[in-house]
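Q: What does the assembled structure look like for these inputs?
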Amino acid sequence: MSGESIRAGIDRTLGQLSGDVRSAKGMFMLALLLIAAVSPLLVSRHWVGIIIQIAIYALVVLSWNFIAGYFGLFTFAHAALFGVGGYGTAIVAAEYGVPPMLAPLLGGLAAGLLALPVIVPVLRLADDYVAMVTLAYAEILHRAAIILDGITGGPTGYTGIGSMFGGGQLVFFYFVLAVVAGLALLQYGLLVSRFGLIARAIRESEDAAQMLGNNTIRFKTIGFVIGSSIAGIAGGLQAYYIGIVSPPMMALTQMIDFLAMAVVGGLGVMTGPVAGTVIVHGSTEALRQIGDIRLLLWGILLIAVILYFPKGFMGDDRFWDRIEALLDRFRGGSS
Amino acid sequence: MVDSVLVAQQLINGMLFGGILVIIAIGLSLIFGVGGVLNFSHGAIFMIGGYIGLFTAQLTDSFLFAAIAGTIGGFILGVVIEVGFVRRIRSRDDIGIAAIMLTLGIAIVLENFMRTTQGSFHQSLPVSFGTAVWNVGPIIVVSRRVYIFLLAIAAIAGLFAIIKYTKVGLGIQAVAQDRQTALLMGIRPNRIYAITFGISAALAGLAGVLLAPLFSIYPSVGWRPFLLAFIVVMIGGLGSLRGTLVAAVVIALVRSLATTWFSTQTTFIILFLFMIVVLYLNPQGLKEVVEA
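A:
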């Protein structure tokens, strides 16, 4: 891409963004970002930590939505590649002395590289078969992380990552927020461009997209690698956030959490992953006192969303109306 | 030779485990073949079956009653899942993916329901049957495993008999082949879907009870058998019962032999790798090879 076309792309993205941000959903996202930005003034360190976690998870879910929601490639390997990014970051930082701010980028590279082998079968398959083959690949990566204890630290995980910014939570918080917002903007820019149009064309009908002269294999590969690399970068942030990278990060249960966030927020909607992560992870943390029942509750939430709001919280306008009606009834009932 | 005894011992164990793996995998394959649904709550149904068996065994001290209760409980749960949940999304364009997410949600709910009511600790089935140990030459066989294996074989034979010789079975075959034509022939697909889901879940519930005396029961116990069954079904050919049968036996044997030399994790890696290769080369699985 030449410098000029990049500048044109940035102009187009900003133009589109200035329109989108005025819509109801855009305002909602802007409000969330502003609340997050001023939150260190308002809430305890514990909750700032939770907001960091929400931001990192939101980035993972955003990048999953990039692959699944726009290209229609329902990958189950995302949590595993998130973990690969975490391991990659931790290893280059601890063993090769890569500066902490740079290390997650290399983690992203590692995730992108390890996404390549599974692309070969993914390109040959469709729909639920993509889910199956990526699930198998994810399990291979997960179990490899457990076995290869010389590299990964085995079942107990890899420690000794060190800290970013000398362990200052506030600087790290704003760094994470900036990285997440920046990478979200990058994905947004790609999706409002021709690239995004072709992605959606592939999702709706790959044959038609191909017939119109698009190299769908190339676009699917690029989309898959970009999405996976972003998950890897998020994994690097996660490594610095919790100070340890361990196999559960790559487990099927972690993947299910991400899927739930994506589905609750809404597939194929740019704002869905953020809302879904805030709802699912935020409520999980807020309800920590009630114990395991909260896991039962969000299982029920997931089922309810799939049955009644298949487009998710941000994708279904009926949902907004119903919430409004529910609030009205609540207001009427309490007064 | 000591090695050949070890191998023979492992093969026997693998065979006995294979019997149970068949009934888990065949249920998974059946639902996919008839309804196009990859049921991620299959492992959770297995787990619920195990708990039902556990409670029944505590009350009656009979393993046979436990197995029957687990089977019936599984059947009811399966019908409820199909009629109450899966049916509502059946007409959607993205049924494959939506069904995966929906059944994942059901699995989460079932698992955490048991976790909140029963706790996460491991419980074992209090049955005192088949404790005799048979020595076949140098090979040791615990008779309980053989009885359990025979029960599994009986269940598989029962399933094949139902599908081959009953009217319901004919309906299942018809809907699996062509839903529209089946509808024109006076078969109600919704009823067939419910029965198929019920039968599949009954097998999972039974498997949960059958495996309980060998392992133990806890809320997340279903995931490992589910993943194994998942591999089996992929390799055997989704929806092909005979392919699944052969693949289950082969994989159970491979697994028990491999765990002699490799760790469980490495064995799983090999199996998943094999699954990816099979899917890549032939998304239909190996069923053509088997049925030809």
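Residues 288-292 of chain B have pLDDT under 50 and may be disordered.
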